Amino acid sequence: MGKQLTEMLKGTLEGIVLALLSDRPAYGYEITASLRDQGFADIAEGTIYALLVRIEQRGLVDVQKVPSEKGPPRKVYSLNAQGREHLDEFWRTWSFLAERLEQLRKGGK
Known about the structure:
Layout: H1 2-23, E1 26-27, H2 28-37, H3 45-57, E2 61-66, E3 74-79, H4 81-105
Antiparallel strand pairs: 1-3, 2-3
Helix pairs in contact: 1-4, 2-3
């Protein structure tokens, strides 16, 4: 699955991260660890941090700096109303694609 999985993840990782943030606020390392716990072992921390910067710039999350016991404050991301709308659209699109792909897999029926 290697390369194909990587390519598919590129298109869905934003939605996956927003879905994680819909459950609870989290900082970058927590998000990466959660993804790894769910089987996305090959996702690099740098990929998640770059994605968090993009979704912050697009106004999909709110960010709060929280003091850390070690080092500088952590940026904790939480899904805001615009992010929830974006996530809802992601799930509608995902459902549409999943249904069509399942039809194709079953021979177009």
